[in-house]
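Service request form, structural biology core

Requester: graduate student, group of Dr. S.
Request type: structure prediction, single chain
Budget code: on file
Notes: please return the result as structure tokens.

Sequence provided:
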Amino acid sequence: MNSKNTSFFKEGTCLFWKNIGKLSLYNLYLFLIALAVFLLFAIITGLAVANTDMVGSQISTSGIVFILLFFAFLILAAPVLGTGYQYIYVKLARKESTSFKNIFAGFRHFWPVWLSHFFTQVIGFGGVMLVLIPLLIISIALVINQIAIPVFLLGSYYWLDYLPVGFVVLIVIQIIVVLVFSIYWACKLLFAHIAALDKKVQPSDAIYYANNLSKGNKMKIFLNFFLPYIILIIILNIITYFIGDTGLLAKISAFVISLLNVFIFTPWACSIIAVAYVRISDGFDQNLSSIFLEKFIRPKTSLAEPVNEAEESDKEVDVNEIEAEKTDEETEVED
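Core staff response, request fulfilled:
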């Protein structure tokens, strides 16, 4: 479905500022937890290095095992935690109640969420390489055909002087191709890991669902999310370039930018993604064929309708009462 009249950027910004207090508190909790984890890692790594065999300069086996386990934990847990973090914004976009424990919601659906994240990375990488490999082959053939390899390797430190102009142009084209197709696949499969958690489906279904959500919306996703993010990165890099990388001012600017990333830029971006997902998925689910209704549809509300748990429970009670009255009437008729 194409959400033509919706500004994800504007609504996401409003969602962020409306919940900035709650989100700042959640991010503070996450920041402190991450700081504690990395401090623990630094302490244990320092102890492992301190116990290093000074003769062989080898870290102890226990130190190596701990480091490997730590990185394995990051590889497994980070995507799931990130999805749970994003899911908080989805719940806020639907005006559902949230709490900090929602960040860990992905662990209840661990493997589908993690595998959805993994396969989207693999698919995106494969899609980029399918376009990039032919350009690499052409570049290598051009180099082999037009330059003397021994002179190129041994003749000068300024090896760019030996490269043909066409090769330099191909390098620029390759960089552009990587950027363009990386963004394309990111727009195409942006919602896969969110769908795996939100819809409680398997990785293949989550990727299928995300792919269908992005149909007709890729440019809108790019303009509302990726383009502002790219502009922001360029601006921050220009600022840091003029400030420099040494001195007190550079340290202060780096600290300020880090705080902005944690408490402003990241939750802002997640708010835009959440609004885009809720808006597009609500419209898509309304037009979903009956084959997929049971698989992808879950009880939820739109952005405009807050959840009222009391009303929902009252409806359930009313339904139960009606069913009980019907059974009583049937019993009286039989008597």
